[in-house]
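Regression test case RT-17, inverse folding.

Input:
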């Protein structure tokens, strides 16, 4: 069994954009691979923010994998062409997104009940041997057996790895993860497997690793938004003190603050909205009154005061 597993920072649309990833890598680190939130086509075009987000000049990370979401090989190829143009050698294919608007058009986990459509989509893997593809998926859309019907197809597709979030799409993020179905999938899957879902503490990583010793990595999303030091703490085998955490959060927050002020030309409301997103999952055990004051603040000066108040108290 590997001593510590590589940690992958899950893509989170609206949270883990380039500035967040850069600031996280600079101030905390401990993550082996970051992923961009999915790039998709909107009425046949790219969204400008997606292009900005994957731009190599905007990303300063040891390893970044761009992710695409598409319902057909044609759309996937259009997105892949952008990744190739930007110089990427890896691409992650999203077969897990549960958002109903996308899923009902057979994107993300919405494609999982249709093996022939998954097969068509994954045909891009063989077509672009210069690209190292990975897949991030759920167990199914409405039934956890859907992934089992795809196992031969997946095993016959040359993938670098598969990340599994063991829920079905219809669950969204509710209910428990289905570890039994994860184990069934693992027993038949020939690809390196990465576990993803509800990891909040070092002990959760260790417990999953003990249960599935052949895992090749752990992907963490909301757990890292809540505790950006989680990967670092796991790697170093020690927890940060409240003071150390406050210092690193302050540093990361300053990077985000300066970036948004510059990028949004000081538009106070926009800057505040962006910064408030940073606090949505962060430090859930911190002082409730200060967290509330951050979310309620409607002016930058009030916001700054609320952040200082919070970081000057014990954080957990
Ligand atoms: C707000 C939000 C946005 C997400 N955006 C993406 C995305 O762009 N691509 C993707 O593959 N998964 C996305 N996910 C799913 C996460 O990557 C991850 O699979 C999920 O949150 C479960 O992992 P966690 O329990 O560690 O957070 C998103 C999840 C949330 C809550």
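Golden output:
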């Amino acid at each position: 069994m590997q001593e510590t597993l590589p940690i992958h920072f899950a893509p989170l649309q609206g949270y883990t954009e380039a500035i967040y990833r850069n600031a996280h890598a600079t101030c905390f680190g401990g993550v082996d691979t970051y992923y961009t939130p999915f790039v998709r086509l909107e009425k046949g075009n790219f969204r400008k923010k997606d292009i900005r987000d994957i731009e190599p000049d905007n990303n300063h990370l040891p390893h970044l994998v761009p992710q695409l979401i598409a319902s057909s090989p044609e759309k996937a190829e259009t997105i892949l062409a952008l990744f190739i143009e930007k110089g990427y050698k890896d691409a992650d294919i999203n077969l897990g997104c549960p958002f109903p608007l996308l899923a009902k058009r057979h994107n993300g986990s919405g494609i999982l009940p249709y093996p022939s459509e998954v097969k068509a989509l994954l045909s891009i893997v063989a077509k672009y041997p210069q690209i190292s593809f990975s897949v991030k998926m759920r167990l199914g859309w409405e039934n956890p057996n859907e992934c089992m019907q795809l196992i031969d197809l997946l095993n016959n597709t040359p993938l670098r790895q598969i990340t599994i979030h063991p829920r079905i799409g219809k669950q969204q993020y509710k209910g428990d993860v289905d570890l039994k179905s994860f184990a069934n999938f693992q027993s038949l899957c020939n690809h390196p497997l990465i576990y993803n879902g509800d990891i909040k503490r070092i002990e959760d990583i260790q417990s999953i690793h003990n249960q599935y010793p052949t895992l090749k990595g752990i992907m963490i999303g909301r757990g890292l938004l809540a505790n950006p030091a989680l990967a670092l703490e796991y790697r170093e085998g020690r927890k940060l003190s409240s003071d150390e955490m406050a210092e690193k959060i302050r540093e990361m927050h300053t990077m985000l603050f300066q970036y948004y002020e510059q990028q949004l030309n000081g538009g106070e409301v926009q800057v505040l909205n962006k910064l408030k997103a940073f606090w949505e999952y962060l430090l859930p055990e911190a002082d409730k009154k200060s967290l509330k004051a951050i979310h309620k603040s409607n002016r930058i000066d009030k916001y700054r005061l609320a952040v200082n108040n919070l970081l000057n108290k014990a954080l957990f």
